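User: Teach me something about this protein's shape.
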Amino acid sequence: MAKMDIALDLGTSFTSIFVSGNGIVLHEPSVIAYFDNGGKKRMRAVGSEAYYMIGKAPDKTKVVCPIMDGTIKDADACADMLSEFISKILPQSYLIKPRIRCILGMPMGVTVADREMYEDVLMRAGIDEITMVNSVILAAIGTDMPVSSNFGGIITTIGGGVTEIAILSLCGIVSGYGINIGGDMIDRALMDRVSGKYKINIGRTVVRDVRERVCSLIRNDCATTTVSGIDVESKNIRTQSIAAHELYGVVYDYYKNISDAVESVINASTPTVAAEIQRTGINVVGGCAKIPGLKPMLEKLLRLKVTISGEAEYATVLGGGKLLSDDELLYDIVSHQ
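Assistant: First, the predicted structure itself:
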């Protein structure tokens, strides 16, 4: 039987798949849309196509985001979505479906029941063999941190639904935790800010575009963008120019909270670990690590060297991809979980 080895990052905002020998073959929004006609439900769209239905779908089309705050909240929708993604990446040269082995990135602190639920979702999607690894460890491997050494470093992943901070050593997590701050929470705050300041309501896809285009941690950033929405008072469609510096306070507060959480993890570490962190600095990854000004902001607040990978949003799935060809390291990591 043909075989396929994949690494999978099921994120709140995006799902990414790495195929051994091919690299990253899929990076699409974690969204699925159903057509529901009198209780008879069928899949209508998935990924990017479903994402752009948000806020525009007719009554009988339901758009579902099955992953919230970094974990699966709708197992059935997630299994359907992942099944479609798997179908997209299967080479047409296969006459029959290959046996799929998967390394899956998992959030910290999941329960046994959570792991069983994830395993059930992946198996229903057509994955045959599953190895679960903490996402922060995969992200560290994806940025070439020495996770198997006696001090692997400290890493922060800032995703769509959650931020995780971990100190790594000898293939395991010495200490760390996650906080419910991510792109989705920032987007909701930005929607409130735009509505309050400009008196215009904008949709979820529009506000994410605003965050990615103009939001910045540079106080006097002069970037601008134009959006369309509904005037709060007249209820008419209106366009509005939005400036980065007018949203600065909103995004700064959230990233300041992340900085405070990182500082708490460092302060709770041993003197030996703290000295190593002072020497090596901190790695920051995740889709929300790409915001301009984050590196100097964190370096000023934490008084540490900060490294942000050029492929920050792909670090987790890239780390899983590297583990696909390193069975010895994978064994050591799984043994420490």
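Now, about its shape. The chain has a mean pLDDT of 94. The longest helix spans residues 248-267. If you'd like, I can walk through any region in more detail.
User: That's plenty for now, thanks!
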